[in-house]
């Protein structure tokens, strides 16, 4: 039966299949994702707390990192609980309104993270290429401005993309071979004209991802050129080590997104898409604090001092 009108579309349900094709793996996957979620929560909150209470870490790089951890905390909380729920219940349905709400918050986090990673790349560029001007260039006021731009970009993109979904009409229950509500879900489920929504997706989503990626690539291009010009091997190692954690995080985050959305769907099986979605929505928020803590001596030292202080108390 055709359901017409924007408001009536909210009566339609989506069914998130998730990993229901593998019934024997439901419990192991639930335990695995629960552990990942717990590690992600503890890691990101712990990173924020350590940066907050350690004066040595009150620098632009760690200021950005604390906000990146906050975004990852929110990101993981938006997607993982629904994934865990779908692994233990038979009713995997979600209302259109609920799906749109999840999508809206997810877009806010994803776009904010892309801009935040670009800001961190620029921070490393200034620190290595213009060290004498670093304190002036990366002033607290300017860093706060970059963080504000990151959050504003995420919110604005989310508002426009959400609006482009609200103008669509959904006709019937749609089975989704994934565990998360993505933009493609709404386009495939819609029975109305999608031209406007596709234009909005290109303008606000694709351009934001590629613009921030260009900023990151240009920043690291100049950084690598500067490192090659250094005569001291120890200087080159020190310069590269300051970028290693961020470069690793960028490679994982952008690599997964580009693999999923830049390769035609015909080349990606449903399982590959779901695994890729798990990686950038569930695993990446857990990896970021681990990457920065394991590869950063300042963070490890702060963690050891905090641990020793608790033991002493």
Short structural summary:
The protein is mainly alpha-helical.
- Major sheet size, sense and barrel closure: 3 strands, mixed
Task: Bin the helical content.
Answer: over 70%
Query: What name goes with the CATH superfamily?
Result: Rhodopsin 7-helix transmembrane proteins
Number of helices: 10
| Lateral arrangement of strands in the main beta sheet | 2-1-3
- At CATH level 3, the topology is Rhopdopsin 7-helix transmembrane proteins
Q: What class would the helix/strand composition place it in?
A: mainly alpha
* Beta strand %: under 5%
Q: Mean pLDDT across all residues, rounded?
A: 82
Overall number of domains: 1
The H/E string reads EHHEHHHEHHHHH
- CATH architecture group name: Up-down Bundle
Distance between the termini: 67 Å
The parts where pLDDT drops under 50 for at least 5 residues are 1-8, 264-268
Radius of gyration: 21 Å
Strand runs, count: 3
Could you say which overall geometry the principal axes of the C-alpha atoms support? globular
What is the class in the CATH system? Answer: Mainly Alpha
Quaternary status: single chain
